[in-house]
Specification:
By secondary structure, this protein is α/β, with parallel strands linked by helices. It contains eight helices and 15 strands. It has helices at residues 16-25, 56-62, 72-78, 121-130, 164-168, 192-213, 226-232, 261-270; strands spanning 5-10, 38-40, 46-51, 67-71, 83-87, 93-100, 115-118, 136-139, 155-160, 171-180, 182-186, 214-222, 240-243, 249-257, 274-280. Bound molecules: phosphoribosyl ATP and zinc ion.
Length: 286
Amino acid sequence: METKLKIALQKSGRLYDDSVKILKECGIELQNGMNKLLNEAMNFPMQILFLRDDDIPQYVEDGVADIGIVGENIVYETNKNVELVEELGFGKCRLSVAVPRNENYADAQFLNGKRIATTYPFLLQNFLDKHNIKAEIHEISGSVEITPGVGLADAICDLVSSGSTLFSNGLKETEVILNSQAALIGNKNLSPEKQLLLKKLLFRIQAVKKAKKNKYILLNAPNNKLDVICSLIPGMKSPTILPLGIEGWSSLHSVVQEDDFWNIIESLKDNGAEGILIIPIEKMVL
Ligand code: PRT
Ligand code: ZN
């Protein structure tokens, strides 16, 4: 029987769409009309299990799933014996401590003797221990942000992304305990066949990630500025240079990183580049 890689994804919630999307970008399509708990990829030896995100690390540790996609916050909170294989660049958030906005919070010692509500007792306890703080952790299962307002806690420890939940509950963020994003995790004892499949998948994921960080750039440049413009957009090996129909001008094709994208564009313009086109790249294999 053909070996299949079993991957656990969140069944519904914030990570579902991007998890399915990244598989799709890797050329892995799920079958339509299969049941909601188990699916089978059409063009890759892969089975997909849909689970609650909190359960994914345990399933991967036990080998019920070989790999999984889950927030690092869950990986570190559950503290299971799994491999963190690759960060995936979506589901970004941070685990933070927050207190009522009118509190005079100088540093973490403020939390001494206080009641802190959280769904992340393990990571919070680690943080408190590291700072030598004795506080009362109230583990609750949801709606952490309302607890100070109703007098159940003096502070909270919860996930934050835009900060609007904290703001609308009259809270301010005072400590970041962990920066998190979705990650691919794996069982530590995969068979050689499964390791090979994981390597294939990882190769595709890395190509997709690289492509997202880079853009294809086309521009026209006066020939006497080609040297400086080439040095601004060196590309993967070197830019492609083609002569234009007009005497003294060339067309340059290259790849540019998203990070300092706008600075590069400005320098290109300052050096006489015209007709700059930026095009997304779908996959990038170096
Ligand atoms: O049902 P299941 O157990 O699978 O899902 P869940 O309800 O436990 O998790 P879900 O779908 O809410 O989140 C899944 C994962 O998304 C989390 O484990 C994080 O890794 C990631 N993620 C990214 C977030 C957020 N951003 C986020 N903002 N998870 C939760 N939030 C919540 C936060 O708890 C708070 O209530 O959003 C609120 C804050 O958001 P802002 O934008 O107002 O700051
Ligand atoms: Zn959950």
